[in-house]
Design a protein that fits this description.
It is built from 6 helices and 10 strands; from the N terminus they run E-E-E-H-E-E-E-H-H-H-E-H-E-H-E-E. The chain has helices spanning 42-49, 92-102, 110-120, 136-149, 166-181, 193-198, and strands at residues 4-13, 16-26, 31-35, 57-62, 65-66, 77-80, 154-158, 185-189, 201-204, 214-215. Helix 2 (92-102) crosses helix 3 and helix 3 (110-120) crosses helix 4 (136-149).
């Protein structure tokens, strides 16, 4: 089972620390929320964990192996970023299919797998609609469907419900937390206190000296008893 670990992560921009000495573990069957205001480093942290941003200090490992560049779905880790990274001139289904083909899924199997993934997030009726014609919330769900179609052992999601209406939100939250229930790891960066409260552990980037993901609703400061 795939695990991700970060130790003493540090990252600065223009001489200002964005992240300093951050420790984090994501294990199979676990869920972790990363919280903090805009500018506190949540998106940067996801980039570091996924190998999209080179670390300036500390280390990130997946299954004990150092992460030295962007991770591929075959490594077991998939990321959903705020920008979604969808191709506007492709349909919702085609966006999912492209990711599946890149991950090695045979061409004959990709369309059905894409349809099933879109159905999971309630978008099967929009499968053949161009992404550029979809709403922001629908695009957000297409990005999640694409990630889920890749069957990740670990999913990192940056503000995964920020643009969703209540019904879509409930559906997506249920699908996200089906992952740890199935022995997968889930990390969400979020401003949403209800989503954070659903997670097993919380890492609050507003707290100086945070040493790791602390129990839900009770983030620790360095030096507190475990």
């Amino acid at each position: 089972m795939t695990s991700l670990e970060a130790r003493r992560l540090r990252y600065a921009i223009d001489g200002r620390d964005v992240l300093s000495d951050v420790d984090l573990e994501l294990r199979p069957g676990a869920s972790v929320a990363v919280i903090g205001p805009s500018g506190s480093g949540k998106t940067t942290l996801i980039g570091l964990l996924a190998g999209l941003i080179p670390t300036q200090g500390g280390r990130v490992t997946i299954d004990g192996r150092p992460v030295s560049g962007p991770l591929h779905p075959t490594d077991g880790l998939v990321v959903v970023l705020q920008g979604y990274g969808l191709v506007a001139l492709l349909t919702a289904a085609e966006n999912v299919e492209v990711a599946l083909r890149a991950a090695g899924v045979p061409a004959g199997e990709a369309p059905e797998a894409a349809w099933e993934a879109l159905e999971e997030v309630g978008l099967e009726s929009f499968a053949h609609q161009l992404v550029e014609e979809l709403s922001g919330g629908q695009r957000q769900r297409v990005a999640l469907a694409r990630a889920l179609a890749l069957k990740p052992a670990l999913l990192l999601a940056d503000e995964p419900i920020s643009e969703l209406d209540p019904d879509a939100r409930a559906l997506v939250v249920a699908r996200l937390f089906a992952l740890p229930a199935d022995g997968k790891g889930l990390l969400v960066c979020t401003h949403d206190p209800e989503l954070a409260a659903r997670c097993d552990r919380v890492l609050d980037l507003r707290r100086t000296g945070v040493t790791g993901a602390a129990p839900t609703r009770t983030p620790r400061r360095a030096g507190d008893d475990a």
